[in-house]
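[audit] Reproducing an earlier prediction to check determinism. Same input, same settings, fresh worker. If the tokens differ from the archived copy the diff job will pick it up downstream; this log only records the rerun itself.
[audit] input (138 residues):
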Amino acid sequence: PERLISLLVEQLAGVNGWDAFIRCPMGLDVDAIVPADVRERLDALPSSLHLYGDRVPLDYELEPGGGVVRLRLKEGQARRLREEDLPSLDRPLRFSVLRGRRPSVRADTLADMRRQLTELPRTERAQLVRRGRRPRRR
């Protein structure tokens, strides 16, 4: 990440305003940054996995300690997820739970993801309960 930042900062040398920033052509030469054998190995990593009958996307990210893979789950999948369902990967696994219009949940561990999902604000819990009930007819 530090090397990428320095390459981008070099390209911004002399930029001193918004108009100059908009006109500044920026780019990164992947061939110069990442050796071909490393690119081949990274390109071979899976982009999704099969979980509960669905294809679940895998997002690869960089953290200060190195690369991680984030499992992008729907809320129902996340609530059913068990430790034994988790794949064995070459890097640490993180979680991202998409919750429709509500804010997504991001967690570093399965336990933290579960905790965040069970600690929904009271208003969200009430909405979930209401959705499960049929309106009364009078």
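[audit] rerun output stored. Observation attached for the diff report: The chain is about 40% helix and 25% strand.
[audit] end
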